[in-house]
Amino acid sequence: MKSRFSFKARMADFDLNLYMRPMFENHFSFLKGHGFSDFSQKPPMHNPQSNFHFVSANKHVEIDISFESITTPFYASLNNYGIIMLDLNNQTIAAYNANFNPFNFTDACDQLHDEYLGEIASILQRHINVLYGDTSQLEENTQIYKVMLDMAEIERKIKEQLFTCTFDSSWGPCIHESASLEEIRTYLLQLDEVVTNISMHDWNGNKIDFSL
Which of these, 76, 80, 86, lies nearest to 136 by C-alpha position? Predict the structure, then answer.
């Protein structure tokens, strides 16, 4: 997609709805045939200055395209499940996340957004059943993805031989990792508050004795 807005012009007089509308119309017009409303911006859930949500819904599900700013990656969800969970090995989405540069303020940023939304639309068209409330594959693949992340995290800790310390502070439950028990001890002693419920595990998940 060739952006109609240069970055300088965008910053001077930018209309977010005008920016998003051509992409929604280009990629998601098929949703009309499944009872969906036009995409519209809804109030932000967190920081009103940087958290944007565009939503389209039918009587079964809601699709949400969210992002922090136009120079950060988009995230598409359906009933709070990441739509990418329908296609865990999607190379287009993987490339989008890998290649996106948050400091890229050129038309390349627009192109990446456009390609991402186009692929999200293609995924939905390959899984029309989710548009009518069948989220079983989304739920199943989300659980698979969580297991994959857990396994990758375990492999990382083993490879780097990291100790994991969990503890409570005024911030709530906390985690600190290091390959050195002494580094963890120093870190905890230097905190400007009392920490409690300290627990230490090695990279194999075994609990080990530890004290300050």
Answer: 86
Separation of alpha carbons 102 and 186, rounded Å: 35
Can you read off the two tokens belonging to residue 33? 């045939």
Backbone angles phi and psi of 208, in degrees to 5: -125, 155
Phi then psi dihedrals of residue 101, to 5 deg: -110, 115
Cβ-based burial of 60 (10 A; exposed 0-12, middle 13-18, buried ≥19): middle
Alpha helices in the chain (DSSP H): 7-12, 16-28, 91-99, 107-126, 136-160, 181-190
Predicted TM-score (pTM) of this structure:
0.68
Phi and psi of 5, rounded to 5°?
A: -125, 120
In the sheet with 196-201, reading across from the earlier edge strand, the strands are 172-178, 163-169, 196-201, 207-208
Q: What are the pLDDT tens digits along the chain (212 aa)?
A: 444 444 444 444 557 778 888 899 999 999 999 999 999 988 765 445 447 889 999 999 999 998 877 667 889 999 999 999 999 889 999 888 887 766 655 566 778 888 999 999 999 999 999 999 999 999 999 998 888 888 888 888 899 999 999 999 888 888 899 999 999 999 999 988 888 899 999 988 888 999 88
d(C-alpha 47, C-alpha 174), whole Å:
24
* CA 130 vs CA 63, 81, 92, 159: distances in Å: 11, 11, 21, 39
